Amino acid sequence: MKGLPPQGAAGRTVLLAGWLFADLLLLLLVVALGSLPREQRADARPSPTPSDSAGSPSSRPAERGLVLEPCSFTVRTGSDASVRQQFGAQLRGAGVASRTAGFVLSFGTAPDPGPGQAAADKVNSQITKGFSHFQHAPKRGYWKGGASGKVRIDVFFLAAPDGDTAFPKGCHDEGG
């Protein structure tokens, strides 16, 4: 029987490799479509009709992107007023006091994880209550080894109202 695929384990291996290749190709297609810029994805959506319950496109809230680099700020732990004063001054100095936070990661320094994370969580609570642009942003507190008393706050801002997702000029990124 010439021309027929080989029987047995070798034939099944070739068949499974073909399915694996097809699955990977499908995965790459999904990733490619998901990574298209918003403008190209919008062209693929059906146009809303007047009977849509959401109304016209102008009545729906605009989607806002996220600035992918964080603005980093460092505050000394202390009273609510002290932390808010330090953080507010740094926001104003960086020119981002009116920007809305997308999410916030705080790193409390301490020799041990428990007190460091507790300091970060406390600072997150202090800035949530003190700054309206931070109230709805998810916040996470983490520990960073070192001497106690400081918290580094990494803020990932939402894009500017015009859709600009560029890193704010007055910010800096302290990195790890």
Structure notes:
With 176 residues, the chain is of the alpha+beta class. 38% of the residues lie in helices and 18% in strands. The protein is built from 4 helices and 4 strands. It has a 4-stranded mixed beta sheet with strand order 1-4-2-3. The N and C termini lie far apart (65 Å). The relative contact order is 0.17.
Q: How much helicity do the residues have?
A: 25-40%
Q: What best-fitting shape do the alpha-carbon axes yield? A: elongated
The biggest sheet amounts to: 4 strands, mixed
Q: Structural class from helices and strands?
A: alpha+beta
Q: Give Rg in angstroms.
A: 25 Å
Uncertain segments: none
- Residue-averaged pLDDT, rounded? 81
Q: Total number of helical segments?
A: 4
Order of helices and strands: HHEHEHEE
User: What is the topology, as strand order, of the major beta sheet?
Assistant: 1-4-2-3
What is the percentage of strand-forming residues?
Answer: 15-25%
